Structures are given as C-alpha cells and as structure tokens.
Automatic annotation (TrEMBL):
It comes from Pseudoalteromonas tunicata D2. This is Two-component response regulator. Residues 1-98 form the OmpR/PhoB-type domain. The chain crosses the membrane at residues 162-180. One of its GO terms (molecular function) is DNA binding.
Length: 316
C-alpha cells in the first residue's frame, strides 16, 4: 500500500520512501516501523509487537526499538518534517502522531494502473490482429559485425563507468553531510519554565524528549508543581549549581547513552547535593530499582500515577 503525508509518500509493499517525488535512502527498519504505525493508526502499537515484526526470529533488547524510534524522529526532522512523527505512550507503546495521522492519505496502488493499461493495449492488439497466411517466409538473422560488437561493448562500458562515478560521488557527498552533522555542535537546549502562581515545589525534569511527558507535566502543574525542563545532563548540572530544586526527575537513556540517567544521579551525589531524584522509565526491574537506590536515587516510576505518588510523598 502507498500512503501520503506532508510531502512524503511511503510504499509499504516496496518498502520505499519518497520526498517530493525523490526517493530517500534510509534504514529499511525505519520504513517498516512507519508502515506498522500507519496501519495501526489511530490505535497504538505495543512494543513487543514492534520487536516481533521488525526483528523476526531475532533476540534483541527493548533498547533496540527505543533507538529506532529516536533514529526515525531524527531522520524525518532532518528531511524537513516539522510536526512530531511518533508519540510515546508510556506503559503501552508507540503511536503515529495525530498531526501526521490527520494528513495521512491512502493512495491507489500504481500497479493497478499499469495492469489496466496492459489490458487495454492487449485488447487493441487483438482487435487489429490479422491472421497470417499459411506461407511464411522466415529470413535468417544477420550476424552482427565485429565493429558493431565492439561499438556496443564500448557503449555499455562507458555507461557503466558513468553510473559508477555518479554513485561514488553521491556516496561521497552523503558521507560528508553525515560527518558534518556529527561534528557540528548541537543547538543549546532551551530551559522551559512552567510554574503556577502558588507553587508548592519546583522540579527539574531532565529528558531529551520532553514532548513524551507533556501529559505528566500538565498534571504536575495542576498539582501546583513548578516544572523546569532541560534536555541534557550538562545543562541540568549547570542549573543545579545555580538554583535550588525540591526534586529531580530523569529519564534512563539520553544522548545515545542508555545509562545516562544512572550516571546523572551519581554526578549529582558527587556534588554533595541531597535533592531527591526519581528515575522515570518504561522498562522497570528489581535490579534497576536496587541500582538507583544504591547510586543515591529515591525511587523508580514506570507510570504517571506512581510518579505522582512518589512526588506527593515528599515533605516540601
């Protein structure tokens, strides 16, 4: 099937992605992931189902799908897609964003037009077909001369060389762009401040995808919590050196580091700061709970309700 959204066209059967009628080169798993989310929309896809569909007969960790989601977001953002692509539903899975879903258009399969065209041409041929006479003169096919063979070989060789040169140039340009993207300094993350008038407590929330926590943030604001959002560990440490917060919330994986949350907790404690720290993640385990407590954290929350309960239990 083919689907159109924004200026992109996704072909789930051919597993291709076009942007402004030009094909985009990307990881095939990104195309497969997007196809699964589109076909499930407006429902969500569970994490276990995505792992089974994208990595069949392969044992991979839950971090694989989280990394693929992150790579997909970055790929489409770099390609010029400004609305958010994928929503994270904590404890449930992932869903195509409503902005993309609203612009989603199911296109007719191009193959259908091709088949109809062939059928029409075949009918026309049959209508104009003249039965040959019983006597048919068949002339032997002339053997091409040596010069003709050499000319054809030269043309094929020249075309092949040109195509290989163009392909090499494209790969070189793509590699340079990718290298510059890795080396170019990222834009500094902006601190987002949301604080009610009669604030009860101030919370520093560290997460490289704050859009995933929008519902929780609104609920905390309703509970009279001031929420300060930042995306990087470095910015969070700077803010902690300048201001006082009543609690800290951090995600687990951040900036391509699956252990960023634990390292952040350790860094805070090394600065002799006693601010309560809570880890908010979708993959709980008893071992993780124990590790967080040993590093100086105050608890692990896997749902919004458990997070609210941990914060409400603090004495401000």
């Amino acid at each position: 099937m083919r689907y159109s959204f924004d200026s992109f066209v996704l072909n789930t059967r051919a597993r291709t992605l076009h942007h402004h009628n030009e094909i985009l080169l990307c990881d095939e798993r990104i195309v497969l992931l997007l196809g699964l989310l589109i076909e499930a929309y407006p429902d969500h896809c569970q994490q276990a189902d995505l792992l089974k569909q994208i990595w069949p007969n392969t044992v991979v960790s839950n971090w694989s799908i989280a990394r693929l989601i992150s790579d997909s977001r970055k790929f489409f953002l770099f390609a010029g897609l400004h609305p958010p692509l994928i929503e994270t539903l904590r404890g449930r899975g992932y869903r195509l964003s409503h902005e993309i879903g609203a612009s989603l258009v199911k296109l007719e399969d191009e193959n259908l037009d091709s088949v109809n065209l062939v059928d029409r041409d075949s009918s026309a041929i049959k209508e104009n077909w003249i039965e040959p006479s019983s006597t048919v003169l068949v002339l032997p096919e002339a053997e091409p001369s040596t010069s003709t063979k050499n000319s054809r070989h030269y043309k094929k060789t020249t075309v092949t060389r040109i195509l290989l040169s163009l392909f090499g140039a494209v790969l070189t340009i793509f590699s340079l762009v990718f290298a510059l993207d890795l080396r170019w300094p990222n834009e500094p993350s902006k601190l987002v401040i949301n604080e009610p008038h009669d604030v009860k407590a101030r919370i520093l929330w560290v997460d490289d995808h704050p859009e995933n926590n929008e519902i929780e943030r609104k609920e905390l604001l309703a509970k009279k919590f001031g929420v300060y959002l930042t995306k990087t560990t470095q910015d969070a440490m700077t803010l902690l050196s300048l201001y006082r917060y009543d609690a800290i919330i951090t995600d687990m994986g951040r900036e391509d580091d699956p252990l960023a949350g634990l390292k952040f907790i350790k860094m805070v404690r090394q600065q002799s700061l006693s601010t309560p720290i809570f880890l908010y993640t979708i993959m709980p385990s008893q071992a993780l709970q124990t590790t967080v407590l040993n590093e100086g954290g105050h608890g692990v929350a896997t749902t919004s309700e458990s997070l609210y309960q941990l914060l409400d239990n603090l004495a401000y």
